Amino acid sequence: VSWAIAEFLVYRPGAAKQPVAGKIELNRSNWKASASKKSSWNAEWEDKAIDRDPNTRYAAGNNVNNGDWFQVDMGAPQTFKTILMSAGSSANNHPRKFEVYVSNDPNKFGKPVFQDLGSPITRVTFDSSVTGRYIKVVNKQDYGDWWSIHDFRVYK
Q1: For residue 86, which of 120, 46, 48 has the smallest C-alpha distance?
Q2: Up-side HSE of residue 91: CA atoms within 13 Å toward CB?
Q3: What is the DSSP secondary-structure string of 1-58?
Q4: Which DSSP letter does residue 140 get?
Q5: Among 15, 50, 87, 156, which residue carries the largest CB count within 10 Å?
Q6: Residue-by-residue pLDDT tens, the chain, 156 positions
């Protein structure tokens, strides 16, 4: 028997689920998600990553390739410092290497603002706040597994 903790957050009593570390989560109500690849099952489409339900997920399907991407349109430019991307109960289904891009134009992203190796709970914290309407996460390594995002959050 084995087990793992997929996520551990601490909340103030009575708080609207905001981490104690002073992070304020951006409102996701007008967000739209898109991706270069998705599972053939509509219960796992892109909007499931931003639906505030950690029991649902976006799934890219198997055999994720270098260049596959997941993108969020926040509806208007937002200033933020942290992104949380959780694979939830699909702990092995995360990018092994990825880049993050931020832009106000969905067709022009320029250089990545962050590059790293992935993990089941990927926390991206920028040295200083960034501003943009679109966040694009690009997988940078082929691997024969799925890419799942159970929860995608952005914090000030």
Answers
A1: 120
A2: 6
A3: ----------B-TT-SS-BTTS--BPP-TT-EEEES---SSGGGSGGGGGSS-TTS-E
A4: -
A5: 87
A6: 655 555 555 443 433 343 435 689 999 999 999 999 888 776 778 999 999 888 899 898 878 899 999 999 999 999 999 999 888 888 888 888 899 999 999 999 999 999 988 777 788 888 999 999 999 999 999 888 888 899 999 999
151 close to 54: Cβ distance less than 8 angstroms: yes
φ/ψ region of 87 (left if φ > 0, alpha if ψ in -120 to 50, else beta) reads: alpha
CA dihedral 30, 122, 7, 142 (to 10 degrees): 100
**Domains annotated on the chain, with CATH:** 32-155 (2.60.120.260)
- Which pTM was predicted? 0.83
**Sign of the CA dihedral 15, 20, 22, 25?**
negative
Q: Identify any residues that bridge with 30 across adjacent strands, giving them in sequence order.
A: none
User: Token digits for 6?
Assistant: 């997929």
